Amino acid sequence: MNFDFSDDVKVMREEAARFLRDRSPPGIVRRVLDGAAPYDSALWASIAEMGWTAVTIPEEFGGIGLGWEALCVLAEQLGASLAPVPFSSSVYLATEAILAAGTDAQRRELLPLLATGEAIGTFALAEGIGDPAPAMIKAEVRGGRLFGVKSPVPDGGVATDAIVVARNEAGEIGLFRVALAGSGVTRKPLPMIDPSRNHAAIRFDGAAAEPLDTAGQGWALVERLLDRAAILIAFEQVGGAQACLDMARLYSQERYAFGRSIASFQAIKHKLADMFVAIELARAHAYYGAWAIANDTPELPLAAAAARVAATDAYALAAKENIQTHGGMGFTWEMDCHLYYRRAKLLALTLGGPLYWKNRLVAQLDLADAE
Amino acid sequence: MDFDDTPEEAAFRAEARAFLDANTVRKTGRRAFQSLLLDTAAIDRAKAWQAIKADAGFAGITWPTRYGGRGGTPLQQVIYNQEEENYVVPRGVFNQGVGLAIPTLMTYAAPEVTERYARPALRGDQIWCQLFSEPSAGSDLASLRTRAERDGDDWVVNGQKIWTSNAHFSDLGMLVVRTDPDVPKHAGLTFFFIDMKSPGIDIRPLKQISGASNFNEVFFTDVRVPDSQRLGAVGQGWKVAMTTLANERYTIGESEGPDFEDIFALVRELELNGRPAIQHEMVRDRLVDWYIKRQGLKLIRARTLTALSRGNAPGPESSIGKLISAPKLQDIASFGMDLQGMAGAVMGEDAPMNAWFQNALLYAPGKRIAGGTDEIMRNIVAERVLGLPGDVRVDKDIPFNQVPTGRR
């Protein structure tokens, strides 16, 4: 039995935690939150310099090929620090899409740029209200030109390249690469529940779009990309939830009421114990996801849905009860509780909300049982 | 990451499997939905199986060899348990002896005393019970009131214990009593082991809300216990009892009874309003929650095993199993009945799965209480894992006989 990260990966996690404590403190998150910049470009440059953007890219394309277990622990630490960078869009989604279905030319051109962080990728799926579903996709490519509106697009205001889910002339769903600096692209920043992460609505009006080699997989490929990203986002969620528990634990020990620390009241102790239980369940499922993604096992869709659901629940609980533990102060702009409360909701809805993932989980269980 | 055994672990697993193949049969497909009650015949079957296990070296896997054990590791114990789960074996009644009592003797008794009791416990010839809880001392065990007073080489015990599993067919008991009521509560306790056939012991079954009796009340009237059966010093009983209970986490497994698999099977069979139950969103929402807990506990156990396999102590995640599984059992039992609509309240053979869910509804409340209530388990997580302060204790520094008591 070897259901834990290797010592090398654990060392990497510690280094990442140290680096982010130093370089992505709440002040950095708040600069983006307050609208001073759409993301922290200096932090992004440092992250890229350390090779975090390159961990899953093979060496022949300028990556370092460390693999997905390493990416999982980086995701956990990025989630814990609320790092205001376009990492998830570029690494979990755009890079994964190119690795999964990019043409040779696209791999040769884009992967080295994604590895160095010079290119920022994103995945443009949503077209308004609703969870991921083929019926949602109205964007279409005619004669190599993309028409439609994608909204919200995570990091849509800062990405250089988008992998867009759209229909071809036969009405089939596929993936298309669009350079966002080109003509026919209009981006409108969107106000978000969590302003520390950039999102935009992007109108495509004849932008040049070049298909990935989706080999007729269409929507199945979209689901596969969402599953893989869900595991990595689950690690961000577990990291964020743990940060909330740590905050609540420290604050409750330092805050006194009725002549004693509030951490000595069972109402608080039991609340924090429940947070711990939810987080450990989520962590266990996320680890299973890490195993599934690193080994590309058939269990991946089930593992991904379970990790996603458990981590979303844990983060929602931890973020709201962290505010509650802080009392009135937790409700102020000045305290950092709301940064996590916001991020918890944002991550719960990116890649599709809880209803989508719960249904997907039961569908996978039904499928597995029928076999 | 992988879920594979190391070569040593694989060899031990093969050995365990060969033993089980040679001595019993594999379980087939579906669950049997058997009653969980024990009768005399069941005890006899359990004893016979225990002897076979002990003789093959699979009963006291972590015990030292001098006491008839294997001298193995906790991980080997877990591997054996995993394998045994796949085979038809009688439900055991030996955890109290093999898991708790004898390890306590190993720590506190002379080796020749331990030797005298170890093999009979290991082979199932002697059954042990635990005489700790009292009507007014449950979560607050240290407030127990059963008295023992010194009389020559003996102690004389008077009082009442409760929630004693298996007392009516036990040979020996672990007993914590108050020997000094004039000092604060933890300081006045002493630990003994006692012959359950001693004159003055009256064992009465306790009828539970289900109507079944898995536990007993045990009354002591001038029961004599030799001082030679004291474990630890006079007044050190709390410390000894904590040693006993520290071993308990190795013996408590997953709750028996309905789990995710059963409710999942039910919703794939049942129709609600002309559609399979599993297609209803309300049903799916509940299923997801229980799958997360069921599978999550399995994965948490895999993490614990990994720590053991690497020679490390299990992390804090290993302490939350009961807090998850007991409420889950109660919720699943209740929802299993809800799914059956107006007929859900029918018990007996006519109910689906031999009234698996209905019966569970009536024993599940006990699972949330026995071995540490949900509330105590949360305190344990908060204090030992998260490092939060202990509760304010108003009885800590005053003599036990001056501690306020209620009417219950």
What can you see in these coordinates?
The complex is a heterodimer of chains A (371) and B (408). Chain A is of the alpha+beta class. Chain A has three domains: 7-119, Acyl-CoA dehydrogenase/oxidase, N-terminal domain (Butyryl-Coa Dehydrogenase, subunit A, domain 1), CATH 1.10.540.10; 122-211, Butyryl-CoA Dehydrogenase, subunit A, domain 2 (Beta Barrel), CATH 2.40.110.10; 219-370, Butyryl-CoA Dehydrogenase, subunit A, domain 3 (Up-down Bundle). In chain A, 54% of the residues lie in helices and 14% in strands. Chain A contains eleven helices and ten strands. In chain A, the strands form three sheets. In chain A, strands 1-4-5-8 form a four-stranded mixed sheet, covered by helices on one side. In chain A, strands 2-3-7-6 form a four-stranded antiparallel sheet, with no helix packed on it. Chain A has a two-stranded antiparallel ribbon with strand order 9-10. In chain A, β9 (256-257) and β10 (260-261) form a beta hairpin. In chain A, α4 crosses α7. The longest helix of chain A has 36 residues, at 219-254. Chain A is globular and about 75 Å long. In chain A, 56% of the residues are buried. The model of chain A has no long low-confidence stretch (mean pLDDT 97). Chain B has 408 residues and is α+β, with helices and mostly antiparallel strands. Chain B folds into three domains: 7-92, Orthogonal Bundle (Butyryl-Coa Dehydrogenase, subunit A, domain 1); 128-247, Butyryl-CoA Dehydrogenase, subunit A, domain 2; 252-372, Butyryl-CoA Dehydrogenase, subunit A, domain 3, CATH 1.20.140. Chain B has helices at residues 7-23, 40-56, 74-84, 95-108, 111-122, 237-246, 260-269, 281-309, 321-338, 352-367, 374-385, and strands at 128-131, 147-151, 154-165, 172-178, 189-195, 201-206, 215-226, 230-231, 271-272, 275-276. Chain B has a four-stranded mixed sheet with strand order 1-4-5-8. In chain B, a hairpin with a 2-residue loop joins β2 and β3 (154-165). In chain B, α8 packs antiparallel against α9. The longest helix of chain B has 29 residues, at 281-309. The relative contact order of chain B is 0.10. The mean pLDDT of chain B is 92. Chains A and B meet through α7, β10, α8, α9 and α11 of A and α8 and α11 of B.
